[in-house]
Request: fold
Amino acid sequence: MVNGVNGVGAGGDGGSSSGSDTVTAAQVRELKRQRLDFFNHGFEAHQPAAQPDLSGRHCFVTVGATAGFRSLLDEVSTAGFLESLAGHGFASLEVQCGPDHSAIWERLARLDEEERRGVAVSCFAYTGDMHAHIINCRGLAGVRPAGCVIAHGGTGTVGEVLGVGAPLIVVANPTLMDNHQLELAEDLEAQNLVVHGQIGSLTDALGRIAERITQGTLDNLPPYSPPSFPVSAADRVTFFDWMVLTCYPDELAVQMLQQPVVNGDVPAVAVDDQEDNGMLVFD
Reply:
């Protein structure tokens, strides 16, 4: 499934500043050197993280590419959150920051070694390979323990993490229109598919995800196998699968013909043939 976080506008250093202060070339070089030293201390800044050691879990935080989520980023870049990660056996934290990359890098860089609690930390703005970061949080028997993805409630990101089978904490971004991410988070938690995390209490969500990992033996999953497309009718049980079908108009048409008629009405789905590409429209 295609994700919405790609390598457009990577990095947080492209902005301009104004004011009367003069910044010398030497100061700029020193700042760049400090940033490189920080990133080299942990994971590579813009590359998928290496597989964590079997003794430690990996946490990947993502906010997507289209909207900032500063409150989530601020909370995961605190000493208290890192302490909770370490307490639940996590060895590494990787944060995709979007437009807030520079600010979050500075917050993380201010944490000393004791405050990091032995957790290797890295952050970056965007990535062209979201799947590689997510898969590092999926448990694999004899290779790596299950970690955790903490994500905003974007349907593309949520669908990809659920498809991989990695433990997931969904945190709704309350600044978005109609707060639609909250409805998604609550519905998926009711189905026991995710943990609904909330700003201000993410450490509680970590505790609940740790329980799920233990109860579900998620440390011992078999190797990941990408699903075949289009998904078979027997396995098409979520809205995300119907989103995938929009790329297969012929299969979508067949499936719609097989849908039951309720009270004389066909399902409220239409196909747009202008560009030979199916488009779902829900009333």
The longest helix spans residues 25-41. The first strand starts at residue 57 and ends at 62.
